[in-house]
Design brief:
Distance between the termini: 19 Å
Helix content: 25-40%
Structural class: alpha+beta
Largest sheet: 8 strands, mixed
Number of helices: 6
Shape: globular
Radius of gyration: 18 Å
Number of strands: 8
Oligomer: single chain
Strand content: 15-25%
């Protein structure tokens, strides 16, 4: 999409909170991705057009599936999140108010290890990320056949690039957004994931 927009993309990988902080404070970075929409991020970032989506739900042990119909059904369970991640507004509000107890890990991989070891019952994760990590990470190999994705999805979340608001290059953002439409980014992402 950036190439279509006439820009060279350089990607650097960092732990999530560091990536967000660098994008916010270091003018070397134009932004970060992928991100889910959250209103409170708009003070520091400009959201691109959505370039794809991913089902957000829970990783669980296949041998101990968790049936639930509302977030209230999850009260009293050991849940895992990733520090700094946006989940759903309702879920994040319940965690913030103490209605749900969640242990914030440093990464999705750490949460999958906790699920695999039975230390937490559910871990919030994008289904595509879960399958990718279980397939590619050697540290998760022993859990690959034991962990599954819960039958109920929290939300099918849209994915965005968050461009820094301070000193934003509006020409680049506009060009990127036009490229998202021109290349049918969502279809391209779906094809890559399959």
């Amino acid at each position: 999409m950036f190439a279509k927009a006439g820009y060279e993309l350089v990607v650097e990988f960092y732990p999530w909170n560091r990536a967000v902080n660098l994008a916010k404070t270091n003018k070397k970075y134009a932004g970060y991705f992928p991100e889910y929409y959250a209103k409170d991020l708009e003070k520091d970032f400009i959201f691109s057009k959505p370039f794809g989506k991913g089902p957000l739900g829970f990783a669980e042990l296949k041998s101990k599936p968790v049936p639930w119909s509302s977030l209230d059904d999850l009260k009293g369970m050991k849940l895992g999140t990733v520090a700094g991640y946006v989940n759903t507004q309702a879920f994040d509000d319940m965690v913030a108010s103490g209605g749900l107890k969640a242990d914030a890990a440093r990464s999705d991989m750490a949460n999958l290890q906790k699920v695999g070891a039975g230390r937490i019952q559910l871990a919030v994760i994008d289904e595509n990320v879960m399958h990718y990590l279980l397939k590619t990470e050697p540290a998760l190999k022993r859990y690959a056949d034991k962990i599954g994705f819960n039958a109920k999805v929290l939300e099918d979340k849209k994915l965005y690039v968050c461009f820094r608001r301070d000193g934003a290059d509006m020409q680049m953002i506009d060009a990127f957004n036009k490229a998202v439409d021109a290349v049918n980014a969502a279809a391209m992402l779906d094809k890559k994931l399959k």
